[in-house]
Design brief:
The protein has 636 residues and is α/β, with parallel strands linked by helices.
Length: 636
């Protein structure tokens, strides 16, 4: 009996010591001293082999260590390290906290879509750079799904759906027609709720909120805020992502802002839309969108609004369309470091400095009007950019400027009476400075002083254009051409018409002789590597009615057929006629062309699957377009 009692006492003592070790281990685990905890748990195992509390404690120690180390790695943004820890702790892969941390390491996002209206369907699509969308020119949902622009998520409400972080577009539709196209930029581990909801701001029947501020407090991506007529105050108003603020049908809400602060701050306002608003004079900072993906301003009027009426900073693929601006205190639109931006049918008058100043890749001014800018009409600075079908007149120093660009296209622009107050180093109606792969074609320059076309250290083609009535030199090419910009590094001035310019052309110190006989067509090699002139003609272009602003070539004009390839020089008015009527069709086709170019790049990069998908989309959006047809032929 005594031996049994001693054995029982020893067993009890070992169990007590084991429990003490387990308790000490638990305390160590709480303070994240996992090595100390493991030592204690091994001592407990030594006291009582197979001790259940020690086994459970060891498992808890391993689990808490994995959670602690994953959290530490994530706090240092060491995503791969966190995933490696999770892989080593596979026994806990079903643990809720480990699951959550693993989602964070992967950057997994979730999206939920609800609607306060019936019949709303939701689709999810990817975002292609340089391809902005609006519901007005988005394809039918049947076509969009067929070519892979988006895939259906189902009717709203859509339960939580996991997706990777990145840029997306959510398309909300009814009966096969897009109602909202929402570009979204999801950071790592974002949980987003999209809600289709319409709110009305005003007083009276149907109003849901008395003020815009109250409506914005409850607005989620997908919300639409309708402003009734009258006056609304904006002061440093912050717009949430994906919210559209628009005028109620048949009204023109007036927007005022106190002096000093900016009217709207759109930091991170991805997919925000302002539609049909009238902004009254004030001297604040204007409307500023920074770090925002695809904000849209359309059908708005701005009268003497801010030093920078519209400012985009790091705002990719912004779109301003069908807007008018009068008397900007400095800039009408300024874009800085934005990858993609389009000013479409924007009219800017009487800017105190510059109408449009666009910098960044893929900046475009299309069908814009710039009148009486103190210094510059339209300026671009960035690769793969363009000024297309614009009218620029009355600019003080320069009509248009392209600088530090590669792949710049300037076509079908009318420049009238620019450079009327020449100043600085390079006054000109059109100036190109340190640009490569320039395409200057089918432009008409009338009047103005100093120089019609000035080209400095550029490489490109300058052809099929008209210079008429310039109180100065028709053109001046100077500086060494930019290298590696064209086959044979050739800069070509070709197939153009001049008339009644005070001076003619110049290549650095080499005067370019007038050519009055188109059949002579000599080729002249200027200094510093300039190459020019297969066909240049001095003749009256015979405009239909220049006195009243009609610069089409008359049917009997001697300039007809004198452009490259037998085309008419100057603006292609007939070809532009249909485009000038249907803005949605133009934007849709431009998207198709962009997709065709991206598809060609994908094919060159040996990615035929992506090239085929983009080709199908390009053909839908731009049927019959040469670039889309060329890609389609390459894929056969």
């Amino acid at each position: 009996r005594e031996a049994g009692a001693r054995a029982a006492s020893e067993t009890a003592g070992r169990e007590e010591r084991a429990r003490e070790h387990v308790a000490a281990a638990a305390a160590a685990i709480e303070r994240a001293a996992f090595d100390d905890a493991l030592v204690r748990l091994k001592l407990a195992e030594a006291e009582v082999p197979g001790f259940p509390a020690a086994i459970a404690g060891a498992r808890r120690c391993r689990r808490n260590r994995a959670v602690h180390e994953m959290s530490d790695a994530l706090s240092r943004e060491n995503w791969k390290g966190a995933l490696a820890i999770a892989e080593g702790a596979a026994e806990f892969r079903a643990d809720p906290e480990v699951v959550a941390l693993t989602r964070r390491a992967h950057g997994t996002c979730s999206i939920r879509i609800v609607s306060q209206e019936t019949g709303i369907e939701a689709d999810l699509g990817s975002v292609e750079p340089g391809v902005p969308w609006e519901d007005s020119f988005f394809p039918t949902m049947e076509d969009a799904r067929r070519v892979g622009l988006c895939r259906p998520l189902g009717p709203a409400p859509v339960a939580q759906t996991d997706i990777s972080f990145g840029d997306y577009m959510v398309v909300l539709s009814r009966e096969g027609k897009a109602l909202r196209v929402l570009p979204l930029r999801l950071g790592r581990s974002t949980d987003l709720r999209v809600e289709y909801r319409r709110m009305r701001v005003g007083i009276g029947d149907g109003a849901t909120h008395e003020s815009l501020a109250a409506a914005l407090e409850s607005a989620l991506p997908g919300s639409e805020i309708e402003l009734q007529g009258g006056t609304h105050s904006f002061s440093e108003t912050r717009i949430p992502p994906g919210v559209r603020i628009r005028a109620a049908a048949g009204t023109a809400p007036r927007i005022i802002s106190p002096e000093g602060p900016g009217c709207i701050e759109g930091a991170g306002a991805h997919g925000a839309v302002l539609d049909g608003l009238s902004f009254e004079p004030y001297s604040g900072a204007g409307l500023r969108f920074s770090g925002a993906l695809r904000p849209v301003i359309r059908r708005c009027r701005f009268e003497r609004v801010g030093n920078r009426t519209l400012e985009f900073v790091g705002a990719d693929d912004w779109l301003v369309r069908d807007c008018s601006m009068t008397g900007p205190r400095r800039f009408g639109i300024i874009s800085e470091n934005s990858n993609g931006g389009t000013a479409f049918r924007v009219e800017c008058r009487d800017s105190a400095d510059r109408a449009l100043e666009l910098s960044g890749r893929r900046q475009r001014a299309i069908q814009c009007v710039a009148v009486n800018s103190a210094k510059l009409g339209i300026g671009i600075q960035g690769d793969d950019s363009g000024i297309l079908a614009c009218r620029i007149s009355g600019s003080g120093v320069q009509g248009l400027v392209a600088a530090d660009c590669s792949g710049v296209t300037v076509e079908d622009n009318l420049l009238v009476d620019n450079c009327i107050r020449p100043a600085g180093d390079e006054p000109a109606s059109a100036l190109f400075y340190e640009c490569g792969r320039v395409r200057f074609r089918f432009n008409t320059i009338v009047g103005g002083k100093t120089v019609g076309l000035a080209v400095k250290q550029c490489g490109g083609f300058f052809e099929s254009w008209i210079a008429c009535g310039i109180d100065g030199r028709a053109f001046h090419f100077h500086g060494i051409p930019a290298v590696d910009t064209l086959p044979e590094d050739a800069t070509t001035l070709d197939w153009f018409v001049t008339w009644k310019c005070a001076l003619w052309g110049r290549f650095d110190t080499v005067e370019f002789p007038k050519i009055t006989d188109a059949l002579a067509a000599p080729r002249i090699d200027g200094s510093q590597g300039w190459k020019a002139a297969r066909a240049v003609l001095e003749c009256d272009p015979g405009f239909v009615d220049a006195e009243h602003g009609d610069y089409r070539l008359a049917q009997e004009s001697a300039a007809r057929g004198k452009g490259n390839g037998g085309a008419d020089p100057g603006v292609r008015w007939d070809a532009l006629a249909s485009d000038l009527k249907d803005g949605d069709a133009w934007l849709r086709r431009e998207n198709g062309r962009t997709l065709a170019r991206e598809g060609t790049r994908a094919l060159i990069a040996n990615d035929p699957a992506r090239a085929r998908r983009l080709s199908t989309q390009a053909t839908l959006l731009a049927p019959g377009d040469p670039e889309a047809a060329r890609l389609e032929a390459l894929l056969k």
